[in-house]
Amino acid sequence: MSFTGFPEAALDFYDDLEIDNSKVFWEAHKGMYRDSVAAPMTALTGELADEFGEAKIFRPYRDVRFSKDKTPYKTHQGAFVAVGPATGYYVQIGAPGFRVGAGFYDADSERLARFRRAIDDDLHGAELERILATLRRKGWEIGGNRLKTAPRGWAKDHPRIELLRHRSMTVSRDYGFDEVIHTPELVDRVRVHWRETRQLLNWLTQHGT
What we know:
Blueprint: H1 8-19, H2 23-52, E1 56-57, E2 76-84, E3 87-94, E4 97-104, H3 109-120, H4 122-137, E5 141-143, H5 161-164, E6 169-176, H6 186-196, H7 198-208
Antiparallel strand pairs: 1-2, 2-3, 3-4, 4-6, 5-6
Helix pairs in contact: 1-2, 2-6
């Protein structure tokens, strides 16, 4: 199946789901989810697989076991292409529109320690700073979960303390409601933007594994 774009119905579906996140709504509209959201996302990531690899299309159901929020369904559809442990490329569609991202989303204490040793190293740390500065100039937003203060064992005045505070590190850019998301040209747009993040992912996989 070739990707032809996400229909307007995909955005409408998530607009309505945010208002009525219930099993009754889902059962009445699961055909719209299948045809307007899941099928186009599968087609989009399928066309990118030749260069980036096979994507995991996330399930639409929330894990509510340990959450105060018991709404059963995610209000967006994401897909992830792994290049390392919890590290890779990401795309998402939801009520706010379409977005792309990349980075690492989770790390145990040993992996975080490896990242931080690389950030502390003048050569590798400076390389990461250059990569992130280039991505910022190209319009990427730097994000991720960060400590409020210095991690244990690191000085608060470390020259790269802002990077050392990261427990995860992501870059993202928002397409919003750009008309391209409704066209086949979205494949090429995502391809170009994912390529821009390749240096970052290479750094993360090199120093986190």
